[in-house]
Design a protein that fits this description.
The protein is mainly alpha-helical. The protein has one domain. It has 2 helices and no strands. The longest helix is centred in the middle third of the chain and has 56 residues.
Length: 68
């Protein structure tokens, strides 16, 4: 390999490494956002289930289901 080819290969490698690092950082950021939103959604679903159970108890539906 000539010196200019070696230099071009080195520059291309550096550009690719920087690009891959940039993509990795963006992917990690998006992944963290998704996990955070899923955790938040899980908490909201738990709260909703508790509220529905409380409403069913207040409406007396709890006793009807357990007696069946």
């Amino acid at each position: 390999m000539t010196e200019s080819n070696s230099k071009a290969a080195k520059e291309l490698t550096e550009i690719m490494e920087a690009t891959m690092q940039n993509l990795h950082s963006k992917f990690q950021s998006r992944s963290d956002q998704i996990v955070s939103k899923m955790d938040d959604m899980g908490t909201r679903i738990d709260d909703l289930e508790k509220n529905v159970a409380d409403l069913m108890t207040q409406a007396g539906m709890d006793e009807q289901q357990t007696s069946k």
